[in-house]
Amino acid sequence: MTPARWLALFFALYYFGYGTFLPYWALWLGDAGAGAGLVGLLLGLGMAVRCAGILGIMGRVRSARHLLPVMQGLSVLSLLAFMAFYGWQSTVGLLVLTLAVNLVYPALIPLSEAMASRYIVQIRLDYGKARLWGSAAFIAANLAVGMLNEYGGSQWILHSMVMSLALLILLTLLQPRPAPAEQPAGRGGDSIMRVLQRPGVGRFLLITALLQGSHAFYYGFSALYWQQQGYSTTVIGYLWGLGVLAEIMIFALDRKWLAQLTARVLLAAGLLCALCRWLMLGATTELIWLVLAQLLHAGSFGLSHLGAVRFISRELDEAAVFGAQALYASIALGMVSGILLMLSGQLYPGLGGHTFWLMAALVLPVAWLLARPLSEEQQAR
């Protein structure tokens, strides 16, 4: 199987599961007997463990030949952990299994992104075209599992997770050809600490943490806010779907229209879109403006993510790819977003939708951080 097809299938299967897990897992926990306080505790602890798991696992992956076996092992462990929920739904069981799931399941994404980054260099992979299938599967899961849950009960949430992981395991048994190439002269990857000490990496992580973290209030509270403003759950679902469709479009155009842009330019465009989006959402809930704001998800998330991938795959050497992916996934997409999500929960009762304006203020320092090139190579030009 070609690497492009293999990665497209991997992203589709993983994000179908994640499109089930992210919006519906709290509902399944509630139906399994967890009260609101316990659900919040489980989700918060899960976020903390997720960061530790990604750093711990990615910190030990130093070679291209390790990628597929580790992905296969994590897929098996994830399946076993989710299957255990069928029979262990006591408070202790939910706690232990939630920690186990978050320790292994989220680490599959930085591993697949690291493989994609390797193939971008090795075979000029069209990353956007492969990644858009993950976004499409995310929408499909939102719709399909939502209907299954409504008509068949919340156990379909767990069934869907198990089925997606079973298919993911089958995929990892297939070897993409050519396999990810080793680095020249057999050099192993740098440790996470060595990658963190490279010029520009710390600034890159701060930039991406602010850009991606600014989505925390949107992810956690936009549906609740819009519902309180009188919108039906159907309309809210369409709005969320529109945002992901815009993201798909930007990924589809990556090779044709965006390939020549540097990480710095993509991140700057992501900043502009995020600033406009959060200001707009904080100012009004008129439907036409909500639609326009959701279209800006193509930039606030899509361009920002492509900028991160561009920096890791083009502006760092191959020894830094695994460590940089681990740092990006655990800090920018994990820890900072989790902290801001919890902070948003404290601010929302008093500020309501005006919390979006704080998200806009959050991204303003990115303009200063992007004032000079991220990498030494660009600085020298």
UniProtKB/TrEMBL annotation:
Taxonomic superkingdom: Bacteria
Under Pfam families, the record lists:
MFS_1_like
From the Swiss-Prot or TrEMBL record, state where the protein is found.
Cell inner membrane
Domain named Major facilitator superfamily associated: residues: 6-357
Q: How does the UniProt record describe the way this protein sits in the membrane?
A: Multi-pass membrane protein
This protein's UniProt keywords: Cell inner membrane, Cell membrane, Membrane, Transmembrane, Transmembrane helix, Transport
Q: Name one GO molecular function term.
A: lactose binding
Any keyword Transmembrane helix?
yes
- State the GO CC annotations: plasma membrane
Q: What is its main location?
A: membrane
Q: Which ranges does the record mark as transmembrane?
A: 7-26, 32-55, 67-86, 92-111, 132-149, 155-174, 201-221, 233-253, 265-281, 287-308, 320-343, 355-371
Listed name of the protein: 3-phenylpropionate MFS transporter
Query: Which species does the entry assign this protein to?
Result: Oceanimonas baumannii
